[in-house]
Amino acid sequence: MNSPASFPKAFALLIPGIGGFLAILICSLLGDFTRVALIMAPFGASCVIAFALPQSPLAQPRSLVGGHVLSTLVGLCALSAFGVHAWSLALGVGAAITLMQLTRTLHPPAGADPLLVMLTGAGWSFLLSPVLLGAAVLVLVALVYHRATRTHYPTAWW
User: Fold this and answer.
1) Which pLDDT does position 7 carry in this prediction?
2) Which pLDDT tens digit goes with each residue over 8-24?
3) Euclidean distance between CA atoms 50 and 142, whole angstroms
4) Residue 157 pLDDT exceeds 70
5) Do 118 and 88 form a contact (C-beta atoms < 8 A)?
6) pLDDT computed for residue 1 by the predictor
7) What b/e sequence results for 36-67 when a residue is b if at least 16 CB atoms lie within 10 Å of its CB, and e otherwise?
8) How distant is the alpha carbon of residue 67 from its chain centre?
9) Within 10 Å of residue 98's Cβ, how many Cβ atoms?
């Protein structure tokens, strides 16, 4: 039988999952309402970092938004310049990692963005929607959610 002291601990484990649930729900509903795509698969992994590790440098707005935007841009450039080949997929991911490190926007889920762009043949509009707009909504939801749960987020905006 669980002791009463274990209930607050168990509830604390639910907090990040509830945050991720709300972030994806809001992106999905807002996207449906506005008819603008605000979700892509790597955002699920971004929610893990933003809600379970909000103090991490990888969770900060600069990294979350900047990492996704830069990595998607790399994927779009690689797709336009080289097409889809094993080496261009690898080049896209490697270049995205390097650029994120150089710009201090490292966000691991964004490493998947060049692959997503290249394997789906995404167009340049993908950079705005879902990437930039969706990442901005994730940050805003994380900001409000962490304020409500009294967690300090972000630790730095830029």
Assistant:
1) 53
2) 777 778 899 999 999 99
3) 7
4) yes
5) yes
6) 45
7) ebbbbebbebbbbbbbeebeeebbbbbbbbbb
8) 8
9) 11
The one-letter amino acid at 146: H
Distance, CA of 139 to chain centre: 9
Cβ atoms of 115 and 105 within 8 Å: the answer is no
3-state secondary structure the chain: CCCCCHHHHHHHHHHHHHHHHHHHHHHHHHHHHHCCCCCCCHHHHHHHHHHHCCCCHHHCHHHHHHHHHHHHHHHHHHHHHHCCCHHHHHHHHHHHHHHHHHCCCCCHHHHHHHHHHHHHCCCHHHHHHHHHHHHHHHHHHHHHHHHHCCCCCCCCCC
Taking residues 137-154, what's their average pLDDT?
95
| 6: pLDDT strictly greater than 60 | no
d(CA 107, CA 31) in angstroms, rounded, equals: 23
